[in-house]
Each structure stands twice: as C-alpha cells, then as structure tokens.
C-alpha cells in the first residue's frame, strides 16, 4: 500500500494520524498542491477527482475519501480500534465523527476556500471548478464557532468526543481545531474549558505530530 498525500492538506493529516495511532508504516507519496500537481495527468490517472489523499492498494485499487480510507485501514489493521468495537460504540463513533466532519471540518474549509485569493475558482476541492462566494465566509466562521461551543458542551460530559475511548472522531475534531486556528484565524475561545482540557490531553499524543 502507499498513500498519495500532501503535508499541507488537513485531509491527508487525518490519515497520517490514523496510521501513526495504528503504527502502520507505508510509503507516503507527496503530491504538491502548491505546484498544482493534483491536476497533472499522472495524478489524474490515480485519482481523477484531483484531490488528496488517495490510498493505493498492492493490487492497484485506488481508494479516495478519508472515511473510506480509514475504514479500509481499520479492517486490515484492527488494533487499536479507532472506529469503535461494539455495535453501539461503532455507531457512536460514526455519529460523532460525522458531526466533527460536517459541522467543524467542512465549515472551516468553506470559510478558508471562499476567502483565500489563491483558491479563486476552486472554492470546492474536487473534479469541478466553483467560484468563491465571499458572502458565505461569515456564516462559515459562525458555524465553526458553533462547532466549538457544541463540542465544548459534549466534552464537558465525556473524556473523548465519542465517549470513553479515543477514536477517529477525536482525530477529525483535532485536525479541525488546528486547521481553523491556523488557516482561518479561529482559535478555540478561552471560555470553552472542556474543549481546551480535551485538546491539551489529545494533542500530546505522539501521533499528532504526523
Ligand atoms: N472528500 C475528500 C476531500 C479531499 C480534499 O478536499 N482534499 C484537499 C486537500 S485537504 C485537496 O486535495 N485539495 C486540492 C485542491 O484544492 O485542488 C476526502 O474525504 O478525501
């Protein structure tokens, strides 16, 4: 297996952290997004949707979409479990990971992609070009702030996003916090003490350097 990815890509980081948590090592093939390598014919042959990451299996199968990549890795390297263990915890992890992705990660991405001059005409990553809608930016930023407030409330009740155990929901949430802080200038507000407590404990895991 090998992973086509970019160090500048938060979606790639979700996979790198997951690999590190499971102590899986595989070649990481860099795709230079700054040099627009995702649009090259060579990369289009691997992933015609023109995004990273892509996991390529030994038989040549290319798997895109972060949750699909993580599902495959969990199946072939089950331990430690990051997608839940029992029917109940699997559903809880899926539920909280989806909330982190849709309400946090996607909102931060929307705020950045509709504002950054270098992404004109590329407001949505993928096979089609879309113009930026600057009027979306403030709403996206509000959605990130609401994500922070909602996850602060959640983390006031449980140690990890999906409950008692560290899971992929924590990975998506922490990548969201780091991306929103650095790329959107939206750090966690001081008053969210439960979110801060969670961030301080999870961010010290060695995998987070990935
Ligand atoms: N739905 C895709 C999204 C992947 C994605 O948006 N990747 C970004 C980097 S974080 C990308 O490749 N951007 C290239 C571009 O903007 O042209 C997934 O889950 O893998």
From TrEMBL:
The keyword Transferase applies. Gene3D superfamilies: 1.20.1050.10, Glutaredoxin (3.40.30.10). Keywords: Transferase. It holds the Pfam family GST_N_3. PROSITE patterns: GLUTAREDOXIN_2 (PS51354), GST_CTER (PS50405), GST_NTER (PS50404). Residues 1-81 form the GST N-terminal domain. This is Glutathione S-transferase. GO terms for molecular function: transferase activity. It comes from the Bacteria. The keyword Thylakoid does not apply. Residues 86-210 form the GST C-terminal domain.
């Amino acid at each position: 297996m090998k992973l086509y990815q970019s160090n500048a890509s938060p979606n790639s980081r979700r996979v790198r952290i997951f690999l590190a948590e499971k102590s899986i090592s595989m070649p990481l093939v860099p795709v230079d997004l700054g040099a627009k390598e995702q649009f090259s014919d060579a990369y289009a042959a691997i992933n015609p949707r023109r995004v990273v990451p892509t996991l390529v299996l030994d038989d040549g199968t290319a798997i895109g979409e972060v949750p699909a990549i993580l599902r495959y890795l969990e199946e072939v390297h089950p331990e430690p479990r990051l997608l839940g263990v029992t029917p109940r915890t699997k559903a809880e992890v899926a539920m909280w990971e989806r909330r982190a992705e849709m309400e946090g990660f996607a909102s931060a991405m929307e705020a950045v992609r509709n504002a950054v001059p270098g992404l004109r005409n590329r407001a949505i990553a993928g096979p089609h070009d879309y113009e930026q809608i600057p009027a979306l930016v403030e709403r996206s930023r509000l959605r990130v702030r609401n994500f922070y407030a909602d996850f602060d409330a959640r983390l006031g009740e449980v140690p990890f996003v999906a409950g008692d155990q560290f899971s992929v929901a924590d990975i998506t949430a922490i990548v969201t916090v780091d991306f929103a802080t650095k790329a959107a200038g939206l750090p966690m507000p001081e008053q969210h003490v439960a979110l801060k407590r969670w961030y301080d404990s999870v961010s010290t895991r060695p995998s987070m350097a990935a």
